[in-house]
Specification:
Largest sheet: 6 strands, antiparallel
Structural class: alpha+beta
Number of strands: 21
Radius of gyration: 30 Å
Number of helices: 4
Order of helices and strands: HHHHEEEEEEEEEEEEEEEEEEEEE
Helix content: 10-25%
Length: 361
Amino acid sequence: MKKKTLSIIVSMCMLLSIVFVAPLQVDAAAADDLIKVAEGELHNTDGSKYGEGAWCGHFIIWCANQANIPTSILPRLTTASAHVAHPNYRTRQNYSPKRGDIVILDTDSNGTANHMEIVTGVHSDGVYSIGGNTTIKCDVPQKGSNGVETKTRYNSMIVGYLVVNYDGSTPSPTPTPTPTPTEKPDIDITNDPVLTVKAGTTDTDTVFSWDAVDGATSYNLNILKGSCPDGEAYISKTNVSSGIEISLPAGNYYAYIDACNADFTEQKTSNIVSFEVEDTSDIISGTCGNNLTWTFNENTGALAITGTGNMWNWEGWMLYDDPAPWYSVNHLIKTVNIADGVTSIGEYAFPMCHYLTSITI
């Protein structure tokens, strides 16, 4: 009886030791849960909901609590210095970030970490992120205020990362880098860049332009797909020149540029420009006067005539009559829009347009 009791006690002790030693894990989707909670707070400017003072750290803690992520997985740290001092901290040069990590930033370009955000994605020269107590850029009522906003962050501003291993594993040690002293010139960027966009179509490139900014030596272009502020990061191009042309599929987009100085210690962000790329794969066009152009959209049935001067005359509606150039799609025309500069409508311009419902002159 004593041997049986002793055996049971030993078995229980072994079971308890397994329970306490095994690392705590959460579902692999926990990073997505954390980001989803953060995105639900987008553009909120009431920092007292999360904490007092510089509340970027409190915002991350609040999101982690709402997503039920244990402290053993995501430590509850309120300051940038605490993140840098944590064993799971890795310098930018010695770590490849992933979705759900915490990015540590030097937003003042003074060599000191002072801000944290949640990594939502990675691009070639940094990360996409969402954070609190940061400037709202999208054209919303809260624009210009400090609140919860999505950002595109570049390595020039990134100090390092707090590695969040949602599987409960311990990050590998950081190799000790050999310091190389550098002397940074004090170069200030005088003003924010101003971006203009000439939207293209599925057949033509979209053109992004801006005037040079004093103190800036390079520009980074960020394009997001969707409507501001809910779009998703689509393209991030570094060190680009004004007038860059990019082919984009049909859809709604918005874009902005970041101007950086020579040693990447300062960065200024432009205005946000929303634009639409039209699907012109089903559009045909031609001329119908010395200075007139016609376009027809097979998807909508809309015929548009633009330019100045008289429209040509045609001799009939049959093929051998030399008909109007849109003769082959007469049966598809639903609406006609004739611009103000058109001074006459040609003979036999719109015969056999059985589905034509309106003409705007």
